[in-house]
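Hi V.,

Quick status before I head out on leave. The structure for the redesign project is tokenized and pasted below; the design run finished overnight.
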């Protein structure tokens, strides 16, 4: 995957594996916005898409790690985890 800067004169983006969740999700949102706007040459669109995939994978990894950490904390505290299904558009998980 290309790690070229988005625009001339800007530093090369950091490797996705080095980013925090907040930095990765912010950059991913920016990329999605740029791709949705259009008007980008095909090759650059592909580069942005590739970067977006790498950022998405980084976010998934960090979320998985965070979930595991929370599970371990709850287990260590003697609590039990309970999965709750949440329907889109509802605020009450018991609905």
């Amino acid at each position: 995957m290309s790690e070229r800067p988005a625009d001339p004169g800007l530093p090369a983006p950091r490797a996705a594996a080095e980013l925090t969740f907040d930095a990765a999700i912010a950059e991913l949102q920016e990329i999605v916005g740029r791709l949705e706007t259009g008007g980008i040459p095909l090759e650059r669109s592909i580069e942005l898409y590739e970067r977006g995939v790498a950022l998405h994978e980084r976010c998934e990894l960090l979320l998985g790690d965070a979930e595991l950490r929370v599970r371990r904390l709850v287990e260590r505290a003697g609590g039990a985890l309970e999965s709750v299904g949440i329907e889109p558009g509802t605020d009450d998980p018991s609905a």
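Above is the designed sequence. Residues 5 and 13 are 6 Å apart (CA to CA).

G. will cover questions while I'm gone.

Best,
W.
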